[in-house]
Amino acid sequence: MFLINCPYCGERDQQEFKAGGEAHIERPKQPTELSDDEWAEYLFMGKVHRSRSRV
Amino acid sequence: MRNKYSVFSLIKNAISYHENWQRAWKDPAPKKEYDAIIVGGGGHGLATAYYLAKKHNMNNIAVVEKGWIGGGNTGRNTTIIRSNYLWDASAGLYDHALKIWEGLSQELNYNVMFSQRGVMNLAHNLQDVRDLKRRTHANRLNGIDAVYLSTEEVKKFCPIINTSPDIRYPVLGGTLQRRAGTARHDAVAWGYARGADAMGVDIIQNCEVKGIKRNGDSVEGIETTKGFIKTKKVGVVAAGHSSVIANMAGLRLPLESKPLQALVSEPVKPIIDTVVMSNAVHAYVSQSDKGELVIGAGTDDYVSYTQKGSHQIVEGTLNAILELYPIFSRMRMLRQWGGIVDICPDASPILSKTSIKGLYFNCGWGTGGFKATPGSGDLFAHTIANDEPHKLNAAFNLNRFVSGDLVDEHGAAAVAH
Hints:
The structure holds 2 protein chains of 2 kinds.
Chain A: E1 3-6, E2 10-13, H1 36-43
Chain B: H1 7-15, E1 33-34, E2 36-39, H2 43-56, E3 61-64, E4 80-81, H3 88-101, H4 104-108, E5 119-123, H5 126-141, E6 147-149, H6 151-157, E7 173-177, E8 181-182, H7 185-198, E9 202-204, E10 209-215, E11 218-224, E12 227-231, E13 234-236, H8 242-248, E14 256-265, E15 275-278, E16 283-287, E17 293-299, H9 311-324, E18 333-343, E19 350-353, E20 359-363, H10 373-386, H11 400-403
Parallel strand pairs in B: 1-12, 2-3, 2-13, 3-9, 5-15, 13-20
Antiparallel strand pairs in B: 4-8, 5-7, 6-7, 10-11, 11-12, 14-17, 14-18, 15-16, 16-17, 19-20
Helix pairs in contact in B: 2-7, 2-10, 3-10
């Protein structure tokens, strides 16, 4: 196990520092007005491309 | 004409020091145009080409492969074959494949070393017990062989498992599918390649797809590193890189690509004659014919295209293996690798038409596609040839993510990913 020293909570498992997935996904502002296509887009269609990670 | 493999051909070639075996498949340059092109020369892609030629008389077709055939996930998985899935749609899909496996070596005249040694799934807590019993009943209602085993029966079937009640995740029972087992992964790709090639399919290796040419809403051809190839039908079977190809055509797929790892030990004498999988602790193990323990680990928690995977995933799996099989505590691991798996939100595959005419996708097999290779090829060939899905893969369409009619197999997967 690889431990990383967190300045706030001490030594923690590296798992806790993993990338949490796609960030900045905006939740629908008017969920009741969304069509099925828009729901599918929001829920399932990720924007992850094969490319360099953003830093 | 393809020479048949037999004991006589073996003797004949032994006399000439095995120097005169016929090539198993040709190495053609791409033609200008094909009736259909399969992108991806793994087991699923080669099987698709084989069944297109065999069952649908489409012989002017090609398989294009970025690297060499069978070098992706076909050569990187733990070769487990089973069909004990919970939902009716999945049971139909995977058992269709299992039935083809049972006669595949004879059909291909190529020994795929299919071994029905049984697959056992262990339960480690009360919820596991309930889920596995439910799955056993569901399987039997779908005509799939399944039995529920008590802890004692688990121990009897696989004596090296530690069934002591004192371990952290004790074995409370398990299920067994006796028709399940393993096969030789490379042989599956090579057998299908040889069979497809004999029927006139061009297998073009080291040919990477760089673009998909569209004319409005129809496919016109593909741009590759070996030039433009014209075709009206493109079937994409590119596993972890399916979304990359989809982007070339301006489509998006509900997939996440992650590394999935496996590892093998040094070879030892026969010690485990079945496949044992454990969901709760994420450990599964079988033994190859060479004697290596074949161990499957989990996926990384984040999206990546690097074919290696993180160390802590292997560590977690080996912790579980050692607790369940203390006899392996001094085994040394020889090799470890990763493959990029394309995971759908509902952990079920996509075998589907798309909004673009002539463009078909066979993807989303995630962590468990090897077992489905023959069935996937058969049904995808049907979908491409008829421009309509077969009834067994109708549920696995792309539109289910809009309609909400998901085939949610997360709970029924044999291990948690």
